[in-house]
Amino acid sequence: MSTTLFLILCLNGLQYGMLLFLIAAGLTLVFGVMGFINLAHGVQYMVGAYLVYAYVQLTGSFIVAVFLSLGTALIFGLLLEFFVFRHLYTRSHLDQVLATFGIIIFLNELAKVVFGPATLSVAPPEFLAGSIQLTETLRYPVYRFATIIAGLAVAAVLYFTISYTRIGMLIRAGATSAEMVSALGVNIQRLFMIVFGVGAMLAGFAGVIAAPIFAIEPGMGDNILIVTFVVIIIGGIGSIGGAFIAALLVGLIDTLGRSFATEILSTLFSPSFANQIGPALASMLIYILMAAILVFRPKGLLPAKGVA
Amino acid sequence: MKKHLKYLTTSLAMSTALGSMALAEDIKIGMVVTLSGPPAALGQQIVDGFQLALDEKDGMLGGQKIELIVEDDELKPDVALLKATSLVERDEVDFVVGTVFSNMLQAIFKPVVQSETFLVSPNAGPSTFAGRNCNPYFFVTSYQNNQNAEISGMIANEEGFESVFTMVPNYQAGRDNIEGFKQTFKGTVTDEVFTPLGHQDFSAELARISTSDADAVFTFMPGGMGVRLVNQFANAGLSENTKFMSVFTTDETTLPGQKDAAVGFLAAGSWAPDLANDANTAFVSAFEAKYGYVPGSYAMQAYDAASLIDSAVAKTGGDLSDKDAVRAALKEADFTSLRGDFSFNNNHYPVQDFHMLNVIKREDGNYQTSFVRTIAEDYPDSFHQDCKM
């Protein structure tokens, strides 16, 4: 196992972590600030991917398609909030789970009806295609570098917004005590709507940048939703900073684990045993981490202040 | 009131009796395939291929009117079992055609063959029913699962690959394919990598491939996994130095998502859309005209399944009550297969030619697999000697 391979794997882990962060950021805000369980968040990721596919077909330009998709994802999130989620804020968590689960099923089937069941793909834009020669034997796709940078940029903007702007202050205050903020004359309903819309847009953005790397198919958001919940539990519910650290941690552990678990095990056990156990253990690592966090730091790595 | 009820039930009973009498002439075929979730494209190919054969014969097989009942197994064994049982018990079908996936077949196998209904598999060909547990009521028109991987090993030998990196999803079919490949491949296998089923990001595995110095990669990544792997493989720039060999990874169901990334990749199979015989040429052009997409091996195998039933019904003159006669007629496989030579082994799995295929871009902009050369002629599966039939 060479150092270059290790570095490549770290880059991959970083890139996967960025993707997870984009989805987790919205989920953790909606979950932490509004106390609302939104299982349909993963479906927003799928919607983003299908949107960019449709807009690339229409306009022929990836960049134009990205902006159109972001706008549409935002509007879509706001519409969902207006027609469905708004009526569920005061209901029990079970009702929220049922309703948002219904939305998952509905949108997955809708994607199948509109785009067909086959797997689709989008080519990355010309200037981001190709790969960089890192060492003699190793190349790294430019597009993946771009996703890392995009993820970092979004993280920076979010951090600035939450920490230093008025709306960020209101979001933090709303998380601590929604009634108090409301009593001070702030339209909490609208605040929630904004948080929800932006969260949906970020998940959509994750879907957009994932589309050229991963395939687009109905139900693509379901698996990533589970990992995203792991991320926000590890990071601390409602905490953007926690989501960022946890997303990177999960991305790195998952990527490195998959490559090294079998090798490490084969130094201890017979190769055939390691081959059987290694892949299974690698897929379990992030859940083991989550279990450990729940035992030793139940509020997550960087818990948000004031969130119960 | 009681009397009225009695009349009602009698008349109801009579009307149902009449209803089934009117239909007694029709032959019923029940189909159990996967039509939901990401693998739905495979099931759709099977439905379309079978339907095309029916339409070409005016809805008749062997001169008898056919009633086709299509059921979706949702890729859940319990659902498959329920659907198959109701086809056999409620609809009393004469044939069951299914399934796409081997684990679905395992679920429906017992109730169907125990009811002495003929089960024709248009795709799944697990080793389980090829050897000791072969069954007189079970026929396969596709292949035995291990065969394509065994042929891939032979292709690697013929192409002169000395070292091969293997990667499959971590489940039974994945492990079977690696075993099949190693059985015939004479060089060294540098790595055996097992990924989770439905794997998203192959970047870690691709990094390992690029540092492994292997001549080629052998993989089995059906459906969306194949689309992701091939696109990421090409994006990482690995196509230049490493050959890509696969089974069920670059086929007509995944190529619309892989496009140029897959061109030139090698595959093993018993058929390609441009396999040169008259029946096949007619089939491919009729299929594309009717459904607007390129047929894959799934559609071909379903079409052959319909042709097989057609020949058997014709031979028995439409009388399906004598099971031994129907079985003998099926066993003869007296139909024109789109693959050319086709016959059944003692275990009712096909004996057929296998070829090396590669992916090409056609002039009309569509992508398909293309015949390169024949690797093995009349190739039987490795389990038939254990079958006492």
TrEMBL record, chain A:
<feature type="transmembrane region" description="Helical">
    <location>
        <begin position="223"/>
        <end position="253"/>
    </location>
</feature>
<comment type="similarity">
    <text>Belongs to the binding-protein-dependent transport system permease family. LivHM subfamily.</text>
</comment>
<protein>
    <submittedName>
        <fullName>High-affinity branched-chain amino acid transport system permease protein LivH</fullName>
    </submittedName>
</protein>
<dbReference type="InterPro" id="IPR052157">
    <property type="entry name" value="BCAA_transport_permease"/>
</dbReference>
<keyword id="KW-0029">Amino-acid transport</keyword>
<keyword id="KW-1133">Transmembrane helix</keyword>
<dbReference type="InterPro" id="IPR001851">
    <property type="entry name" value="ABC_transp_permease"/>
</dbReference>
<feature type="transmembrane region" description="Helical">
    <location>
        <begin position="273"/>
        <end position="296"/>
    </location>
</feature>
<keyword id="KW-0813">Transport</keyword>
<dbReference type="Pfam" id="PF02653">
    <property type="entry name" value="BPD_transp_2"/>
</dbReference>
<feature type="transmembrane region" description="Helical">
    <location>
        <begin position="194"/>
        <end position="216"/>
    </location>
</feature>
<keyword id="KW-0472">Membrane</keyword>
<feature type="transmembrane region" description="Helical">
    <location>
        <begin position="142"/>
        <end position="162"/>
    </location>
</feature>
<feature type="transmembrane region" description="Helical">
    <location>
        <begin position="62"/>
        <end position="85"/>
    </location>
</feature>
<keyword id="KW-0812">Transmembrane</keyword>
<keyword id="KW-1003">Cell membrane</keyword>
<feature type="transmembrane region" description="Helical">
    <location>
        <begin position="97"/>
        <end position="122"/>
    </location>
</feature>
